[in-house]
Amino acid sequence: MFDSWQDALYREFLRLGVPAEKVPIAQSYARPAREQEVSLGFNLTRQWSREHRMTRHLAWLVDHPTFQSGFFMASITGMPVEYKRCVVCLVDEHWTEFAREIYEFPYACFLPHAASLERPVPPSGEGRKYEVVLFGSLCDQEEALTQLFKFVDEQMPACRALVEMFVNSFDYHLSPRLDEALLKAIRQMGFPAPVIKIFMSTVFPQLDLYHRYKNRLKLIRSLTKSAVHIFGNGPWKTLNLPSNIVVHDPIPHRQVLEVMQQARVLLNHAPTLISGGHERVFDALACGCSVLSTESSFLMRELGERNGVTYFRAGVDEDALDGRIQELLASPSLPDRVAASQEVVFRKHHMGIRALQLCQIVKNRWPEVFGEPGG
Description:
The chain is an alpha/beta fold and 375 residues long. The protein folds into three domains: 5-114 and 352-370; 130-140 and 219-348, Rossmann fold (3-Layer(aba) Sandwich); 141-208, no CATH class. The protein has helices at residues 5-15, 69-72, 74-77, 93-101, 141-155, 160-169, 178-188, 193-222, 253-260, 279-286, 297-303, 321-330, 334-348, 351-365, and strands at 38-42, 56-61, 86-90, 108-110, 130-135, 228-231, 245-248, 263-268, 290-294, 309-312. The longest helix is centred in the middle third of the chain and has 30 residues, at 193-222. The two termini are 40 Å apart. The mean pLDDT is 91.
């Protein structure tokens, strides 16, 4: 049995001698607030209530901060939040700066995701039944556009032409940071900061989903040679995909690790996460699986050259991916490159390291939790 993210962190906190407890979300309302307690959840997962708003909270976001705008704009949404009692960790360096600048949230820090396995699995091309795997969801792109234009027409009709331009003309290759390009354009229209904040919080997520999933589908349709196994939510099974594409039901994180140990190549499609690290990459390497990923300056910097990750440019290289995959599958040096990456992952990007870093974040922000002066 493999650990989920939460289980892995729980395990590592206990190894550090830090008292930890796993609490089902549905039960957190009934828990009395404790002075020395710090709650931790992914993507702001927590029962937010006025009775518990003073409980210190660490949120580890896996999405762009606009997807959690209810938290960052609590004065508008009414979410019962005490910002001084919260720290938000984000998995992309650029997203961290966005939270600080646009939402004016000072307690944001960069913390990439990490591998959950306790020890590395030896990389090998033998005995692995999946050539290529992709873990990723898909949404109805037309429905995303419908919801987007419904909001724009009702709330910000003056911005319709701008939104239409970004729907029809945006290209990851020309401008990989959609949020940056959209922010620049809306600022040029002269709107005040509060309106810009609302615009980015409502328009960007739908635009992001539309372009991300449009590009993901283009990528999948371009693959015709290798057997590609897709695990994810959404209408994958309703599409007329090439016969080499095998669609499976979505699976929980524990089973994802099982599949990775039986896969030779992980296809990581994260075109907006270009200066951070997704757990899929770290977990795959830990499982002895090589990675073919959209570009990330952070991963390139951390893993160096001759490693188990090969990069491609979203919006540019899709037509060449079949050949890249065949090269990876045939490469005799690939296991050695994956092994070199595993050394980096377990030294710098493992949940044991993240547990230490999270404890340090708490000490820096709330030293009194560890019995030190401050607060």
